[in-house]
Target: L-galactose dehydrogenase
Amino acid sequence: MEEKTYVEGFHDKDAVKKVQYNDLGKTGLRVSQLGIGTSSLGNCYEVVGEAADVEMVVEGVRLGLNYVDTAPWYGNRKSEQVLGKALLHVLRKAYYIATKVGRYEPNFEKMFDFSAAKTIESVDQSLQLLGLEYVDVIQVHDVEFADDINQVILETLPALEKVRQQGKARFIGITSYCPDVLQYVLDNSSVKIDTVLNYARSSLLDKSLQEYIPRFQSAGVGIINASITSMGLLSSRGPQSWHPAGYDIQRACEAARALCKAEGVEIADLALQSAIATPSISCHLLGSTDAPMLRASLAVAQRPATSREASLGRRLNDECFKNLKQRDWGMRDVEIYLRERQRAS
Model:
């Protein structure tokens, strides 16, 4: 049981005892192996009622998931707004919270802004919406989209250091789909970076994050894994139409979903089991749309994989993914963004 965030009378004590907690790098925070991702609160994948959103967050924390991640980007700050309402029902001691700066509006011309002025303004707006005096982790969102990565290193991160010194955040992080970009920023930043968040690179489909873990560990940062289902590719509902993966990956994952459906196994369960089996990752973010879905995912994570599930996981690799020449989509989403931004200007 994680004593620092446990609140007698609020938490489900028996549930908390089942939760695994890990060190978040050298921050001193002990975070739940599974965290609460809140992109669903911004209706990024489907429209979910606010009451269900609030219930999901409160229930997740009550069950012992003490790390909550959000961002202004999720629904043009709707996620932060709804999350703020959920946090009214939870004591501040019971959770650690992370939000982000850098990515904001769906408008391509206003989507990214890594300037110091916008960074500081965004932190204040996030705190207002969340109803908090500080966040535990403030992260630069999707650093690979910066027109010049040196702006993140020389302007955004120093602005966040000022935020940290003002007591508005305790730790600083960076996020990216590209682990090599995370490594570059770590290697070149004069500002101490405490966490890295990488998404869709520690999954059934793509395990390339693993080769970077020793380097991240040597830098003393906590590692957070997001998008366990590779943004819907590894879920029975499938991805949204805007998913950046190319044709070969899309078809391979379609075949994987069909195989799991034929076997009566939820592919998202296999994706979750595969993700949490990766050692040295501090926290894996769950993207749940409601409390029952969150509880179901937690149950899957806390039981051993069945022999059938283990066998099916191997079959997916051998029959669906093995012949893929490339399992990631590289900088394709950045290329799409730049093309659309040029059209809009």
